[in-house]
Design a protein that fits this description.
Blueprint: H1 3-30, H2 32-44, H3 46-70, H4 72-104, H5 115-129, H6 134-154, H7 158-168
Helix pairs in contact: 1-2, 1-4, 1-5, 2-4, 2-6, 3-4, 3-6, 4-5, 4-6, 5-6
Length: 197
């Protein structure tokens, strides 16, 4: 293998990982509530996220493979669209996963900048994915599967739904304002001698 091939492969890998970081930041910007719910799911139960993501990923890839083979060109187009939707869903969940990782590596510079946790966690995950074999075929696919599971489970997040509903109801003040004392009735001016009566 000549040096140009090594450089091309290295730049391809770096470009792919940078594009993942861009996808996670885009998902954070477009769907911040969904990313937050996914991060909460990863924090509460990452194992459940993995197994749900494994089922969702297997089902989507099976449907895409069968539909792409049996339905000809329309099936291939539908399979491509289905895989694109899966990448977006997995990207939203993985953005939540890397946000969770970034919060574990907290920094005082995060105040008012919640996206910094996403960047920090994304960089940590991408550097781990550079480990030969283990990172390529272990850490990266597992993180995408966990992301798909977290995004799927965030759809059924009841506390988040309750909080969203509660935010639509106007807040009732806890203390009622003090009542003003009744004002004394002011006497009406005398109208005699003014030609009114």
């Amino acid at each position: 293998m000549i040096l140009s091939d090594v450089v091309a492969i290295a730049l391809s890998i770096i470009g792919f990982l940078l594009s993942l970081q861009g996808l996670w930041l885009l998902c954070r910007a477009l769907w911040p509530n969904r990313v937050e719910r996914s991060a909460g799911r990863c924090e509460r139960n990452g194992v459940a996220c993995f197994f749900v993501g494994l089922l969702v990923s297997a089902a989507i890839f099976l449907v895409a493979a069968v539909g792409g083979k049996r339905l000809g060109a329309p099936g291939q187009l539908a399979a491509f669209i289905l895989l694109f939707v899966f990448i977006i869903i997995s990207g939203v969940g993985t953005a939540g996963f890397v946000t969770h990782i970034g919060r574990r590596l907290e920094s005082p510079a995060d105040a008012g900048r919640p996206w910094r946790a996403t960047i920090r966690g994304g960089v940590a995950l991408e550097l781990a994915c550079l480990i030969p074999v283990l990172g390529w075929f272990g850490i990266l696919p597992i993180s995408l599967i966990v992301g798909a599971g977290a995004a799927t489970l965030s759809l059924f997040d009841r506390p988040a739904r309750r909080a969203a509903r509660a935010s639509l109801i106007p807040a009732i003040p806890s203390e009622m304002p003090a009542r003003r004392p009744p004002t004394a009735a002011m006497p009406l001016p005398a109208l005699e001698g003014q030609g009114v009566l």
